[in-house]
Amino acid sequence: ILDDPDLKDIDPTVLKHCHAAAATCILEAGKQKADISAISTCLEDCKLDKERIEQFCTEYQKNKDALEVLLGSIGRSPLHITDVSWRLEYQIKNNQLHKTYQPSYLVTLNVENSDSGSHPDVSFSCTMEQLQDLVGKLKDAAKSLERATQM
């Protein structure tokens, strides 16, 4: 948003606040399953003009189903990692057929959510340095948790 040429004259802080307000409005409307009249009334109370309210409501209506699916996929508790698997991937050539010889790791986290059971696995690719950094951060987190439980 900050790179949009139409918005270059607006203070970035104001722009961030506007973005946060719009996102909050959209999420709350989706969470409350608000209809267009309720959204319109709320936006009128915020002193938006009719044209913008109509445009907002039209876009909201177009994306309402996708928003509800997204909100429904967010559980009340965080995902729990039940297993980890990995494999070494060795890239020999890139798209331009240049030799690269770059090893990377494909990591798959098997996760579940206590609210709704299992979820699709989370997979990502990383270099050895990135994997070492992740392992180091996980060890730090485990030590912090251990110290916190001993107090």
Shape: extended
CA-CA gap between termini: 45 Å
In terms of DSSP E residues, the strand content is 15-25%
Number of strands: 4
Number of domains: 2
The arrangement of helices and strands along the chain is HHHEEEEH
Number of helical regions: 4
Helix amount, in percent? 40-55%
User: What summary fits the major beta sheet?
Assistant: 4 strands, antiparallel
Instruction: Briefly note the structural class of the backbone.
Output: alpha+beta
Give the uncertain stretches in residue-range form. Answer: none
Q: What's the average pLDDT?
A: 84
Q: Measured on Cα atoms, how large is the radius of gyration? A: 23 Å
Describe this structure in words.
The protein has 151 residues and is α+β, with helices and mostly antiparallel strands. It has two domains: 12-74, no CATH class; 81-150, no CATH class. The chain has four helices and four strands, in the order αααββββα. The protein has helices spanning 12-32, 36-45, 50-73, 128-150; strands at 80-93, 99-113, 117-118, 122-126. Strands 1, 2, 3 and 4 form a four-stranded antiparallel sheet that branches. Strand 2 and strand 3 form a beta hairpin. Helix 1 (12-32) packs across helix 3. The mean pLDDT is 84.
What's a concise summary of this model?
With 151 residues, the protein is of the alpha+beta class. The chain is built from 4 helices and 4 strands, in the order αααββββα.
Task: Summarize this structure as a short list of keywords or feature phrases.
4 helices; alpha+beta; about 150 residues; extended
